[in-house]
Structures are given as structure tokens and as C-alpha cells.
Amino acid sequence: MREIEAAVVRGSEEHTIEQLQLDDPEPGEVLVDIRATGVCHTDFHAYTSDDTDFPIVLGHEGAGIVEAVGEDVSTVEPGDSVVLWVLPSCGECQYCRSGRPYLCQRRRDVRGRMMDGTHRLHRGNESINHFYAQSSFATMSVVPERQVVPIESDVPHEIAALLGCGVTTGIGSVLNIAEVESGSTVAVFGCGGVGAGTILAASAVSAGTIVAVDLDTETLDTMEDIGATHTVDASSNDPVERVRELTSGVDYAFECIGNPATIRQAVDTLGPGGTTVITGTSASKSIELDLGAFTKGISVIGNIVGFTQPQIDIPRYISMYKNGDLPLEEILSNSFRLDELDDAFAALGEGGDIKNVIEFEPGP
Ligand SMILES: [Zn+2]
Ligand SMILES: [Zn+2]
């Protein structure tokens, strides 16, 4: 057992930095000294929701150094540099066995706990809930081995942390889901972490035209720096009209915010045979589509974490970063300390910040 420091959320928008006890890793689990962790809208949503399982330690985009491993762990050892992946998966169901761990249904049953239904986080007799079996807003985490991906030690942890969730969701939407070809035309609606990952990957595969659509001009400037060939400020333009003027209908439209009106716009910008990939939708929302679009052979695909197989894809994206094909450093906006979590959450709503991280001092 270790004493750790963590940001414990005890009610909607109430957190304190507390000393907690973290159990040793169980078989198949890894203890990680967290060095950096991304701050994501998913954390903020849980922080501000009344529906979260309090008390909880949030954080699900961690990177750090392996401190210890439980029994039966074979892919990492103490001292390894690692990225922590967001989604737990069982490794045994039909989806996990067919290379689609993002569809694993078992993780839905383990809300607030590790995959075996128990807790590693405690404060005295009180159990503290886990977030995505990771809870990386803490100096150390215990994480299932299936979510721990070894990387080269020379990759800065603040860069590695960008690959734990949203940015990889964007990269995977281009490389794994749409399989965008060189020379094709692409529109990206909403340029936060997912949208930025989408533009980085579209640029990496040499898409011919990449149109970034957002409401914030500072964000659009950054998108030009990372590969957008055109930008559309949707606060002062009709994005469908502008994208159609620029491209006469795109091959791929990526909707990266899960907003019904924007999803409709993305579909409406497609040319014949075009594909829309939508991210971040929820069951309570719906859209109306003109079915005539389907007579032109369009597709609409739901994006779950970029169809990522973390052990295969994250090392691939790290290599692309090292080759200069994915300049992830361009989308790292600001770094905070754990005791500045409020500021880090406030920055999520500000224009211009693409990805922010919390960084930790190396442990003793
Ligand atoms: Zn996330
Ligand atoms: Zn599974």
C-alpha cells in the first residue's frame, strides 16, 4: 500500500487535494507513478454532473513510469515509460477477442470500480471511486495492464498524455475508421482535442484539402499551423455553404463535438460517396436526415475512441510523432499543477487552448 496525493471530488464541483491510500496492484494490474495527465471535457462533465459516483478521483489521460507490477503482468516492468489508455476492457468477450476492445460491454458494469468490482483507493475505511479504472488526477494510479502501453523513454510525458483519449480518438477516426486517402477532401467540425487529432492525421496522410470549422478564431489559427488548408469561422459564416464553395462536397466530414445541428451540417457537406464520422453523441439526442443523401452512397459512422487497439495504435502514433508526421507539441497549450485543477477546468471553456495537461514532479 502507498500513501498518495489525489484530487478527490466529493460532490458536484467540489474537490480537495487529499492524502489517500492506494493498494498494491492485484494480478494483471500495474502501479504507475503519474508524471502528466490530460484534462478532458469528460473529466469536466463528471466534475459538474450530479450523476457521478462521488467520492471519486477523476483523470483518464495519464502518462508516467511503472513503479510496480502485479502477478501475471508480462508487457511492462518497473521503470518503463507508459501511456494509460482510457477504456477498460475485459480481454475475453467476443469484441475483445476480435480486436475491438472499444466495444467491450463488460466495462459498463464496473462504474466507479476496477474490473473485478473492488477498489484500490481508500481513505481510512472509506472507499474512493475510480474513473475509467485509472483516476490519474493523483500522484500514483493502479491501472489494468490492458490499459497500460509501453513507450520509448525519450518521449516527454506531457506529449504522451495527449494520446490517452481525445486526440487518439481523432487520429483513429482518420486512420482506422474513415481510412482517408492521400489527395482526398476533408472537413472537420469542432477543433478541440478530437478535432485537432483529426486534422493532424488528415495532414499526415496528405489529404488534399482540409477545412477546419470552429467558432473560435484563435483555435482556427492553430489548426492552420497543424495542417488545415482552409478555415471556416462558423460564428460568422454558414459552414455548409462555405465548405461546399471550397470543395464542391467533401469526401470525409468529421463531426467532433456530438452536437445534432453540427452532425447535420457535416452530412450536408458530403459529396457523392462521402463519409461522415461522428464522435461524442449521446442516446438522448436525435437528428433528421434527408434520405436522398443515401441515394448518393453516403455513409455515417459512429466513432468510439477512434476504434483504437491501444497496444497496437499508440506505439504507431508515437512513431509518427517521432518522425515529425504528428506534431503533437503544437496542440499542447498549457500545463497546470494538481492544485490548479480549478484553473485547468476553467481553461477548457476558453478559446485557443486545444489540450491542457496537469504535470507532476518526479516522485522521491
Ligand atoms: Zn478524455
Ligand atoms: Zn471485453
From TrEMBL:
The keyword Iron-sulfur does not apply. One of its GO terms (molecular function) is adenyl nucleotide binding. InterPro entries: ADH-like_C, ADH-like_N, ADH_Zn_CS, ER, GroES-like_sf, NAD(P)-bd_dom_sf. Residues 15-358 form the Enoyl reductase (ER) domain. Its cofactor is Zn(2+). Keywords: Metal-binding, NAD, Oxidoreductase, Zinc. Pfam families: ADH_N, ADH_zinc_N. GO terms for biological process: small molecule metabolic process. PANTHER family: ALCOHOL DEHYDROGENASE, ALCOHOL DEHYDROGENASE CLASS-3. Belongs to the zinc-containing alcohol dehydrogenase family. This is Alcohol dehydrogenase catalytic domain-containing protein. It comes from Natribaculum luteum.
